[in-house]
Amino acid sequence: MNLSGLVNQIIGIINGTVIPLIFAAAFVYFLTRVLLLLKDRGAGKPQKQDMAVIFWGILGLAVMIAMWGLVNIVVGTFFGPERSSSTTGGSTNSKTAPASTSPQPPKQKILPGTDDPG
Fold first, then answer.
1. Residue pLDDT, tens place only, 41-52
2. DSSP letters along 22-46, please?
3. By percentage, how much of the chain surpasses pLDDT 90?
């Protein structure tokens, strides 16, 4: 394995496993915060603060997902779809379908009594 293959494997692990785990952890943290706020809502906490926590949590998750998508678009644009598929956790062994041949024109039928054109 050469250095390029090693770097591609490391990037694939980071983008295919580590980043989604970070997103999952952020989502679980956000969800537990929202559930705790909803549970404590009757205890007299200010509602404005609750809504600010929910707003910033949703905004933070949206920014994380948008940045990950933007990075994948940039990588796919500059480094090609092979590298882009590895950053999304997809398989790097993409097999392309064989090139299709253009349809051949139908063979002409030779009518009886005419000369063979070929």
1. 767 666 777 788
2. HHHHHHHHHHHHHHHHHHGGGGT--
3. 17
Give 78-111 pLDDT, tens digit per residue. Answer: 876 665 554 455 544 444 555 556 666 666 666 6
At 71, list the tokens: 């990075």
Residues 104 and 98: beta-carbon distance below 8 Å: no
Residue 28, judged by CB atoms within 10 A of its CB (0-12, 13-18, 19+), counts as exposed
Identify the residue whose tokens are 């097999």.
95
Please tell me the distance from the alpha carbon of residue 56 to that of residue 62, in angstroms, as a whole number: 10
Q: Nearest 10 degrees: CA dihedral of 50, 56, 60, 62?
A: 90
Q: How confident is the model at residue 113 (pLDDT cuts 50, 70, 90)?
A: low
Closest by Cα among 65, 89, 69, 104 to 16: 89
**Tokens encoding 57:** 């949590």
Helical axes 47-79 vs 19-39, angle rounded to 10°: 170
pLDDT of residue 84: 52
